[in-house]
Amino acid sequence: MSTLDWVVLLGTLAAIVGYGIWKARGQQDMARYLRGGNNDKWHTIGLSVMATQASAITFLSTPGRHIKTGCASSNSTLGCRWP
Fold first, then answer.
1. Model confidence over 13-57: pLDDT tens digits?
2. Half-sphere exposure (CA, 13 Å, Cβ side) for 23?
3. Which secondary structure element, helix H or strand E, spans residue 13, and what is its range?
4. Second label for 52, Cα 20 to 30 Å away, from 40, 42, 59, 68?
5. Quick check: 79 and 71 in contact, CB under 8 A?
6. Cβ contacts of residue 9 below 8 Å, gap of 6+?
């Protein structure tokens, strides 16, 4: 890895840790921090779960499918099928 790669990696990690420390200020216990004070509505949590799942599918499954089949589309009418 080049120097620029290390700078970007360490900068990103520092930003994530810094943001976590900033968000954790004033929290009394770990359970309250992890649950966010139980202030989130059901639809916010549902959208978060959906976005997490969509992200995993997008970044893991789709490139693998394209490499294996040569087709990135999930539309079978375009001739793209799972082997």
1. 999 999 988 887 877 777 776 777 777 788 888 888 888 877 766
2. 13
3. helix 3-24
4. 68
5. yes
6. 1
* Residue 70 main-chain phi, psi, to 5 deg: 80, 15
Instruction: Show the tokens assigned to 77.
Output: 């009418």
Q: Which two tokens stand for residue 21?
A: 């420390």
**Measured between alpha carbons, how far is residue 25 from residues 2, 7, 28, 36, 66 in Å?**
35, 27, 9, 12, 44
**This model's pTM is above 0.85:** no
What is the number of other CB atoms lying within 10 angstroms of the CB of residue 29? 7
Dist. CA 71–CA 77, nearest whole Å: 12
Q: If DSSP codes are grouped into helix, strand and coil, which group holds residue 76? A: helix
